[in-house]
Every structure is written in C-alpha cells, then in structure tokens.
Input
Amino acid sequence: MLELRKKKFFSNEYVAEENGAVVAELNLSIWRSQGELTIQGRSLKLKKRGALRDTFELLDGDTALIEVAQPSAWRSRLRFRYEQRDFEIVDKAWYSSTLLLKAGESVVGSISSRGLFAEGAKVDLPDSLPLALRVFVGWIAMIHWDDSATAGAAASAG
Output
C-alpha cells in the first residue's frame, strides 16, 4: 500500500512511501490545486481546473498523461480512462471520507485518510496501475477532502 504523508507539519511537501521506502515526492502550491510530482528524478505536473466541474490533470511538460473529470457539478464522481479501461472514483458512503476506485461495477481499490490529525492518504490501488497514477489519485483524494471540509464549514457558518 502507498502512503502519502507530509514531510513537516506546516508544509505542502509530501512523500509517497511504499513498503517503508520513499518512492516519490509531492510539492504542492499553497492552495494545493497544483504541484509537482517527482519520481526517480522525473518531474510531472499536477493541476486542478474548474470551479463547479473539476478536472484534474497529470502532465509531462505540456502533454496530459491522464485527465480525471467530474462529469456533473451535483455528484462527486470522478471518471478517467486508462489503457482502454474506464475507472470511477466514488465516495464509499456519505458519512465516510474513504473513496473507492471502481473499474466498471467492480471495486478495485480504495483511498482513505491517514487519520484525524495526520494529513495525507493511504492509497490502496492495484500495483498494475503505474506509481505516478496511484500518487495522482491520492492527491485528488486529498483535494476532495479539503473541498468537502470547506463546503461543510461554509454551510455550518451560514
């Protein structure tokens, strides 16, 4: 299982660890909506676009390697295609922060929070997916949790 965790408490820098070894680094912008993913010296860009219907991109320079899109502003499902397979990232339940990765109707993995006070994600996705894609999906989950917390705080303040 892959784990994304902050390097320092007040930092936007993360490490991705697998089997106790650091396999990638994430350096995110202050708003976390974009950043850089470094794997074995190779730098890739992470980018979130949109306000109501989000699109997330993993870029090598200006070339999109993968794009994850939210087809509806009213549902939190995210969809992408990889190697002729359609995938969907969905909430496990309305009361849970865990996200599921589905291929068709089958659940093939999950992404969960590291805990209440430990920012980051536990990314349990198939090893058949490339490391960059697994880290990318973990980053999307962290953005999703931030957006949900912001929406909840705004609703309770109103």
Notes: DSSP finds one helix and twelve strands in the chain. The chain has one domain: 46-157.
